[in-house]
Amino acid sequence: MKKFQILVVEDDAPVRNLITTTLRAHDYRFITSGTGEGAVMEVASHNPDIILLDLGLPDIDGVEVIRRVRSWSNVPIIVISARAEDNDKIDALDAGADDYLTKPFSVEELLARLRVTQRRLALIQNVSNEQAVYQNGPLRIDYSVGCAYLGDNELSLTAMEYKLLCLLARNTGKVLTHRFILQNVWGSSWENDIGSLRVFMATLRKKLEKTPGAPQYIQTHIGVGYRMQKVE
């Protein structure tokens, strides 16, 4: 089995040592950085499998690190931060983070988040091997380049909108519950935040649907979740 390499971006030495000791004990390879600029350089140089990222860095904010990395890489990013406000979580996730763990955290929860992320990576790899392009009526998703199109026009999607769209597309015809979507797009810490999901779904619909009030693609199942409909 492949040993995952993890980039730990944390300027607080005790927290960094806790994380790296945990990773070493569970047979993960890792590299570290105490600054945002250094983190961006490490991603470019070592191409890690997963990034564990603190937001409160001494040089640039962690959200800016996410934006820079996302300009060329889809590497999973798990934020580990003392910032617990919803706005902070939304900013990080909308910038392209995959999960958000609030300090203080337990070692068991950190390891669980890593296992979930590894499963997502395996699923993405399987999808890439089986089908490079998704087509549903005028909607087309090219997984190999991370772009979605409606007819001949490329959709300008945020990282979160793209993840939502891909999850729905890969489950076309199935009703996905709110909890399932939140767990698979944001992680278990967001499984009850249906309000944020509705906000992101509304912005996605505005870009995807000609008439968001009468959607052609994404059907709402009130009190349950959403379904991607097959369009002829």
Weakly predicted, low-confidence segments: none
Order of helices and strands: EHEHEHEHEHEEEEHEHHEE
Rounded mean pLDDT score: 86
Tell me the number of strands: 12
> What is the assembly state of the chains in this entry?
single chain
Report the end-to-end length measured between terminal Cα atoms.
Answer: 42 Å
Class by helix and strand content? alpha/beta
CA radius of gyration is 18 Å
Q: Under the CATH scheme, which architecture of the largest domain would be assigned?
A: 3-Layer(aba) Sandwich
Give the % helix. Answer: 40-55%
**Which word captures the global form?**
elongated
Protein name: Stage 0 sporulation protein A homolog
Keywords: Cytoplasm, DNA-binding, Phosphoprotein, Transcription, Transcription regulation, Two-component regulatory system
Subcellular location: Cytoplasm
Organism: Anaerotignum faecicola
Short description:
Helix content is 44%, strand content 21%.
